[in-house]
Specification:
Rev_trsase/Diguanyl_cyclase; 3 domains; Alpha-Beta Plaits; two-stranded antiparallel sheet; elongated; binds guanosine-5'-triphosphate
């Protein structure tokens, strides 16, 4: 029971820690977003007199520690001013502003777009926000001008804000559960103390009975010596026996009352424990489900980057204590943007799903595949050295190349580039990941649809 409770409590602490870590990641994302909005502001500054004051106010506010709620009216003001520009009747002023917006977009817009797109790809949202994040990713890719990008930035800020609130709510809920469990444990410990006290009462009752019986026995043996007359002696003996019987009867009554109260308490406690057990199982199941969802990419239905980070942590720990080789492959679909642009995002999503499934199908059961983000996947080869992993990578590359995609009945060729790196003494998951990423970059620069070891 005690061990169970410890496990239970430590699970909650772990969950609270995890949520705090995720909240910290979100703070980093928020700060990136602030930088991005600053960039966007600088890019758009000078486009229009009516927009400039809003940009200046927002840029000023972004320098300080102002919270997202307080930034909202400033962002809304800017969005409204930008929208008003677009809604103006055609005329020289409107033409100028549209022209400037376009020029600005050409100079800075695409870098803002790709930065925003990378940011959306990097974030791991709560499962219930996944659809919104996905929709936003598509809208960022489709954004035609700075106004549309600014709106996307605004939506991303909302999403981040909601994510942080969501995480805070989860932390609060878990802490409430922890408080609840702790109070139940207190109840149990109070019950144990009462039982111990009750046991002492039982012992005291027994000792009192012993003392009374011993006393009567002593009187009896004295009477046996004192009384010559058998009649008197018999009377004395009878008296002693009655007293002893009386002592036993009182003892039985006291013990009976004590036992009834004890059974009552024990039954109540049994019910409480049963209830606690049911609550524990329900909460544990929902926690496990939440955990599983948090580590699943809902669009593809496979492990996400968070799952990869957990997995690599465990694999790295065991790699440090064994001589088993461990490698990481970073897989990136080639020219995926043009697949989206040509066939649409829904087709792009389908390609991602099919490639994800193909990867899972063609690695060994002991390997681990996750969607790292965007159009990038990652594979952990546990127990395979570079040469063996390279063979699997080549096989995966070939499988992707030969997957039969069609659009408007025309075959669409999809390829992927792969960067591979094996753990070497002194490595950390990050250094190996960086080497795999660099090798992927080399594969892209070398013409794509190839595997490179780093
Ligand atoms: N359909 C769809 N597109 C996505 C998703 N995640 C990221 N993308 C898109 O993937 C594209 C990645 O484009 P880039 O980073 O320019 O890379 P690329 O076009 O694959 O080119 P190379 O990697 O250099 O071969 C962007 O247009 C993203 O919007 C997604 O979940 N679904």
């Amino acid at each position: 029971m005690r061990l169970d409770n410890q496990v239970w409590e430590s699970r909650y602490h772990e969950a609270v820690d995890r949520l705090s870590r995720e909240e910290a990641q979100w703070r980093t994302a928020e700060s990136l977003l602030r930088q991005l909005v600053g960039c966007l502001g600088r890019a758009a500054h000078g486009a229009h007199d009516q927009v400039d004051p809003h940009i200046e106010r927002l840029s000023g506010a972004l320098q300080g520690p102002m919270d997202a709620m307080a930034l909202e009216p400033l962002v809304n003001g800017l969005t409204e001013a930008m929208n008003n520009l677009g809604a103006r009747p055609r005329g020289t002023h409107a033409e100028r502003s549209i022209a400037i917006t376009r020029v600005t977009r050409t100079e800075h817009g695409s870098s803002v777009q790709s930065a925003l797109s990378r940011l959306v790809d990097r974030i791991i949202v709560l499962p219930r926000l996944a659809d919104r994040a996905n929709e936003l990713r598509h809208d960022v890719a489709d954004a035609g001008d700075l106004v549309a990008l600014a709106t996307c930035g605004d939506r991303l800020a909302d999403l981040i804000n909601e994510q942080r609130l969501g995480l805070q709510r989860e932390i609060d809920a878990l802490q409430a559960v922890l408080r609840h469990v702790t109070s139940r444990l207190d109840e149990l410990s109070q019950y144990m103390s009462r039982e111990l006290a009750d046991q002492s009462t039982g012992e005291a009752n027994g000792q009192a009975l012993d003392a009374s019986v011993a006393h009567e026995m002593r009187l009896l043996s004295e009477a046996a010596l004192e009384y010559d007359d058998v009649h008197d002696l018999r009377e004395r003996v009878n008296l002693c026996l009655e007293t002893i019987a009386q002592c036993f009867s009182e003892f039985r009554d006291r013990e009976g009352t004590r036992l009834t109260a004890y059974r009552d308490r024990a039954e109540k406690m049994r019910q409480r424990i049963e209830q606690l057990e049911t609550e524990r199982n329900t909460l544990q199941r929902s926690l496990e489900r939440e955990h599983e969802l948090a580590q699943t990419d809902t669009m593809i239905g496979m492990p996400n980057r968070l799952a990869y980070e957990k997995r690599i942590e465990a694999a790295f720990e065991s790699w440090q204590t064994t001589t088993r080789p461990l490698s990481i492959a970073a897989i990136d679909i080639d020219h995926f943007k043009s697949i989206n642009d040509t066939y649409g995002h829904t087709a792009g999503d389908a390609v991602l799903r099919i490639i994800g499934q193909a990867l899972v199908k063609h690695v060994r059961p002991c390997d681990f595949v996750a969607r790292y983000g965007g159009e990038e996947f990652i594979v952990l080869f546990d127990g395979a050295d570079e040469a063996e992993s390279m063979q699997v990578c080549e096989r995966l590359r070939g499988k992707i190349q030969h997957l039969a995609f069609h659009a408007s009945r025309q075959p669409v060729r999809v390829t992927a580039s792969i960067g591979l790196a094996q753990f070497q003494p002194g490595d950390t998951p990050q250094t190996v990941f960086d080497r795999a990423d660099l090798a992927l970059y080399t594969a892209k620069n070398g013409g794509r649809n190839r595997c490179v070891a780093g």
